[in-house]
Amino acid sequence: MNALELTGQARTHVVEPPGLQCLMHPDAASAYLAMRESAARSGIVLEAVSAFRHFDRQRQIWNAKFRGERPVLDAKGQPVAVDSLTEARRVEAILLWTAVPGSSRHHWGTDLDVVDRAAMPEGYAVRLEAAEYAPDGLFGPLTAWLDRHMRRFGFFRPYVTGRGGVRPEPWHLSYAPVARSALAALDVETLAAAVRGHEVLGEATILSRLPRIYRRYVRTIDHAPRMRSRWARPPAR
Ligand SMILES: [Zn+2]
Predict the structure, then answer these.
(1) Among 38, 175, 48, 61, CA closest to 111
(2) What distance in Å separates the CA atoms of residue 173 and residue 47, rounded to the nearest whole number?
(3) Cα distance between residue 16 and residue 29, in whole Å
(4) Rounded to the nearest whole angstrom, what is the distance from the C-alpha of residue 183 to the centroid of ligand 1?
(5) CATH of domain 3-220
(6) Residues facing 3 on adjacent strands
(7) 137 vs 25, 115, 168, CA distance in Å?
(8) Distance 51 CA to ligand 1 centre (A)
(9) Would you place residue 220 in the very low, low, confident or very high pLDDT band (cuts 50, 70, 90)?
(10) Which of 68, 93, 103, 151 is deepest in the core (most CB within 10 A)?
């Protein structure tokens, strides 16, 4: 991936897999389709509610939160009144749940937020909250299935423990073989070039803190367990 692809400013590294209404990196897409097929045999209908996300979309989300037009939540999920915060604090508050435009793993096309369509009652609005993915939650069986099988297809969860800056996101999966090299290729300078002069609110604050933001929110993830040899093989059809 080149700098524009790594920061979501291009779509040259993603495709729309047949039958799915989202964009993914081709390698992640074939692994995901194989995993989806396997899950279906266990009665789980995997659905990606978010996969590739363009820089412009991430900026729209970021700027809406910065302006207080979209809720900003604290670590407990309670709304924060952003207009009462200094710019620096506002940036920190948003970072808890939202990546700086250019730094989202969704830019790579390797990461997706998944639900189990089969478990959802009609008209159910997905909240993407930890409780839904807990053992007694609506998506508890999905969590258990993924725990057991996703590794075989190359997927892992980069935000499990919240040990980085990002809150735990049990719905967020990442395709390790490609995401690993994307992470290695994305450096602070590439990220700075994406933010600078691209109408990201709080730009000056973000740029002045970028090395720390990068360490804490981009580099600090729950890494994939050591890849087994079977990961290296193309997923079974
Ligand atoms: Zn996600």
Answers:
(1) 175
(2) 12
(3) 8
(4) 15
(5) 3.30.1380.10
(6) none
(7) 30, 12, 16
(8) 8
(9) confident
(10) 103
Question: Distance, CA 107 to ligand 1 centroid (Å)?
Answer: 10
Map out the domains of the chain as residue ranges. Answer: 3-220
Provide DSSP, 184-217: HH--HHHHHHHHTTTT-TTHHHHHHTHHHHIIII
For residue 112, how far is its CA from the centre of ligand 1 (angstroms)? 6
The number of angstroms, rounded, from the C-alpha of 74 to the middle of its chain's C-alpha atoms is: 18
pLDDT, tens only, 101-150? 999 999 999 999 999 999 999 999 999 988 999 999 999 999 999 999 99
Kindly indicate the confidence band of residue 222, based on its pLDDT and cuts at 50, 70 and 90: confident
CA 113 to chain CA centroid, nearest Å: 7
Q: Give me the count of residues in the chain.
A: 237
Cα 236 from Cα 49, distance rounded (Å): 24
Type and span of the H or E element at 27: helix 26-40
Distance from Cα 232 to the centre of ligand 1, integer Å: 24
Q: pTM of the entire structure?
A: 0.91
Kindly report the number of other CB atoms within 10 A of residue 223's CB atom. Answer: 11
